[in-house]
Write a structure and sequence with these properties.
Blueprint lengths: L5 H24 L3 H12 L5 H8 L3 H13 L3 E5 L7 E5 L10 H14 L3 H27 L1
Antiparallel strand pairs: 1-2
Helix pairs in contact: 3-4
Length: 148
Amino acid sequence: MTSESPVAEALQRYMRERTSCLADARRLLALNELDVTAVLHVSKHPGIRPSELRNHLGITSAGVTTIVERLVRRDILRRESDDEDRRASHIYAQVELSVEPWNCLTRFDDSFNTAISQLHPEVQRDVAEVLDAATATAAVKDSAGSAS
């Protein structure tokens, strides 16, 4: 009897490869994890306001300003003033996520979404239930451990 199911082994292998790819890309691009999260979110939501990005990242206004300024200086993001309210701005990605080394940031997630979309809806639901249960159990254990 094996200690893990083929699904667990495949998911761990996927996560290991994804983590390795992201770490290599972050190192090559000199970005931290929050920078990557910001770039990906802005790429998916062109024209987003800094306050919306702040809410997504769960950081302070000063924190989002620092990130955006740093990425604007590096020509990774672009900020434009709002036409109706010059005090407001919108943020756009300046990089093409479909080319190396940027494509590693989306390649694993895009391929995973494609593979999942090909599964029967009942199988998708079953997999989601298993992952939700594992996450909930781990979160409860983590909360209990951090409270002590």
